[in-house]
Amino acid sequence: MIRYALLCEQEHDFEGWFGASADFDDQQARGLVECPVCGSKAVRKAIMAPALVGTKRTSRDLQAQAQNRTMMMEAMGRIRRHVEENFDDVGDAFASEARAIHEGRSEDRGIYGQASPAEVRDLLEDGVPVAPLPPEPPKKAKLN
Hints:
Blueprint: E1 2-8, E2 13-18, H1 21-29, E3 43-45, H2 59-86, E4 88-91, H3 94-102, E5 111-113, H4 117-125
Parallel strand pairs: 4-5
Antiparallel strand pairs: 1-2, 1-3
Protein backbone atom coordinates (compact mmCIF):
# COMPACT_ATOMS: atom_id res chain seq x y z
CA MET A 1 0.00 0.00 0.00
CA ILE A 2 1.13 3.53 -0.80
CA ARG A 3 -0.10 6.55 1.15
CA TYR A 4 -0.28 9.90 -0.61
CA ALA A 5 -0.94 13.30 0.89
CA LEU A 6 -3.58 14.84 -1.41
CA LEU A 7 -4.96 18.34 -1.99
CA CYS A 8 -8.11 19.43 -3.80
CA GLU A 9 -8.59 22.68 -5.69
CA GLN A 10 -10.00 24.25 -2.50
CA GLU A 11 -6.74 23.30 -0.69
CA HIS A 12 -8.43 20.71 1.56
CA ASP A 13 -5.74 18.22 2.53
CA PHE A 14 -6.39 14.53 3.08
CA GLU A 15 -4.74 11.15 2.64
CA GLY A 16 -5.32 8.46 0.04
CA TRP A 17 -4.15 4.87 0.12
CA PHE A 18 -3.46 3.03 -3.13
CA GLY A 19 -2.34 -0.50 -3.93
CA ALA A 20 0.40 0.67 -6.32
CA SER A 21 1.80 3.99 -7.50
CA ALA A 22 -0.07 3.80 -10.83
CA ASP A 23 -3.42 3.27 -9.04
CA PHE A 24 -3.75 6.96 -8.10
CA ASP A 25 -3.34 8.06 -11.73
CA ASP A 26 -5.75 5.37 -12.95
CA GLN A 27 -8.43 6.16 -10.35
CA GLN A 28 -8.08 9.91 -10.85
CA ALA A 29 -8.46 9.50 -14.63
CA ARG A 30 -11.67 7.54 -14.05
CA GLY A 31 -13.04 10.22 -11.70
CA LEU A 32 -12.90 8.01 -8.61
CA VAL A 33 -10.67 10.24 -6.44
CA GLU A 34 -12.50 13.08 -4.75
CA CYS A 35 -12.10 15.38 -1.76
CA PRO A 36 -13.97 14.04 1.29
CA VAL A 37 -14.67 17.62 2.41
CA CYS A 38 -16.09 19.30 -0.69
CA GLY A 39 -16.42 16.47 -3.22
CA SER A 40 -14.08 18.11 -5.74
CA LYS A 41 -12.51 15.71 -8.22
CA ALA A 42 -9.70 18.18 -8.99
CA VAL A 43 -7.25 16.41 -6.68
CA ARG A 44 -3.46 16.37 -6.86
CA LYS A 45 -0.64 14.81 -4.89
CA ALA A 46 0.86 17.12 -2.28
CA ILE A 47 4.55 17.27 -1.58
CA MET A 48 5.44 15.05 1.34
CA ALA A 49 8.60 13.79 2.95
CA PRO A 50 9.33 10.15 2.25
CA ALA A 51 9.02 7.76 5.14
CA LEU A 52 12.41 6.13 5.37
CA VAL A 53 12.69 2.86 7.20
CA GLY A 54 15.90 1.15 8.15
CA THR A 55 16.69 -2.21 6.66
CA LYS A 56 17.13 -3.95 10.03
CA ARG A 57 13.92 -5.42 11.32
CA THR A 58 13.69 -6.92 14.72
CA SER A 59 11.52 -9.88 15.55
CA ARG A 60 9.40 -7.45 17.58
CA ASP A 61 8.81 -5.32 14.46
CA LEU A 62 7.80 -8.36 12.44
CA GLN A 63 5.56 -9.60 15.23
CA ALA A 64 3.83 -6.19 15.47
CA GLN A 65 3.31 -6.13 11.69
CA ALA A 66 1.79 -9.61 11.75
CA GLN A 67 -0.46 -8.65 14.65
CA ASN A 68 -1.62 -5.48 12.84
CA ARG A 69 -2.31 -7.46 9.67
CA THR A 70 -4.31 -10.03 11.66
CA MET A 71 -6.34 -7.32 13.41
CA MET A 72 -7.11 -5.63 10.07
CA MET A 73 -8.23 -8.88 8.47
CA GLU A 74 -10.46 -9.67 11.46
CA ALA A 75 -12.03 -6.20 11.35
CA MET A 76 -12.70 -6.49 7.61
CA GLY A 77 -14.20 -9.94 8.18
CA ARG A 78 -16.55 -8.56 10.88
CA ILE A 79 -17.69 -5.78 8.53
CA ARG A 80 -18.34 -8.26 5.73
CA ARG A 81 -20.25 -10.65 8.04
CA HIS A 82 -22.36 -7.76 9.36
CA VAL A 83 -23.31 -6.72 5.83
CA GLU A 84 -24.05 -10.29 4.74
CA GLU A 85 -26.20 -10.93 7.84
CA ASN A 86 -28.10 -7.62 7.87
CA PHE A 87 -28.30 -6.34 4.28
CA ASP A 88 -30.19 -7.69 1.28
CA ASP A 89 -28.09 -9.44 -1.40
CA VAL A 90 -29.43 -8.10 -4.70
CA GLY A 91 -26.76 -9.81 -6.83
CA ASP A 92 -26.01 -8.24 -10.19
CA ALA A 93 -29.05 -5.93 -9.85
CA PHE A 94 -27.05 -3.82 -7.37
CA ALA A 95 -26.65 -0.72 -9.55
CA SER A 96 -30.32 -0.50 -10.54
CA GLU A 97 -31.53 -1.23 -7.00
CA ALA A 98 -29.12 1.29 -5.42
CA ARG A 99 -30.34 3.93 -7.87
CA ALA A 100 -34.00 3.04 -7.17
CA ILE A 101 -33.43 3.37 -3.41
CA HIS A 102 -31.61 6.68 -3.89
CA GLU A 103 -34.45 8.04 -6.04
CA GLY A 104 -37.14 6.83 -3.62
CA ARG A 105 -38.59 4.24 -6.02
CA SER A 106 -37.63 1.32 -3.77
CA GLU A 107 -37.65 0.66 -0.02
CA ASP A 108 -34.81 2.39 1.84
CA ARG A 109 -32.61 -0.44 3.13
CA GLY A 110 -29.05 -1.70 3.14
CA ILE A 111 -28.11 -3.76 0.10
CA TYR A 112 -25.04 -5.42 -1.37
CA GLY A 113 -24.25 -7.14 -4.65
CA GLN A 114 -22.12 -6.83 -7.75
CA ALA A 115 -21.63 -3.90 -10.11
CA SER A 116 -19.22 -3.21 -12.93
CA PRO A 117 -16.64 -0.41 -12.56
CA ALA A 118 -18.66 1.66 -15.08
CA GLU A 119 -21.86 1.18 -13.06
CA VAL A 120 -20.07 2.20 -9.84
CA ARG A 121 -18.63 5.30 -11.55
CA ASP A 122 -22.11 6.29 -12.83
CA LEU A 123 -23.65 5.81 -9.37
CA LEU A 124 -20.94 7.93 -7.73
CA GLU A 125 -21.27 10.67 -10.37
CA ASP A 126 -25.02 10.77 -9.69
CA GLY A 127 -24.49 11.09 -5.92
CA VAL A 128 -25.61 7.57 -5.03
CA PRO A 129 -23.59 6.51 -1.95
CA VAL A 130 -21.80 3.20 -2.57
CA ALA A 131 -18.72 1.54 -1.10
CA PRO A 132 -16.86 -1.69 -1.83
CA LEU A 133 -17.47 -4.66 0.43
CA PRO A 134 -14.28 -5.93 2.10
CA PRO A 135 -13.00 -9.11 0.47
CA GLU A 136 -13.69 -12.47 2.02
CA PRO A 137 -10.95 -13.44 4.46
CA PRO A 138 -8.68 -16.20 3.19
CA LYS A 139 -9.54 -19.70 4.30
CA LYS A 140 -7.23 -20.88 7.09
CA ALA A 141 -6.26 -23.90 5.01
CA LYS A 142 -4.85 -21.56 2.33
CA LEU A 143 -2.71 -19.52 4.73
CA ASN A 144 1.02 -20.28 5.15
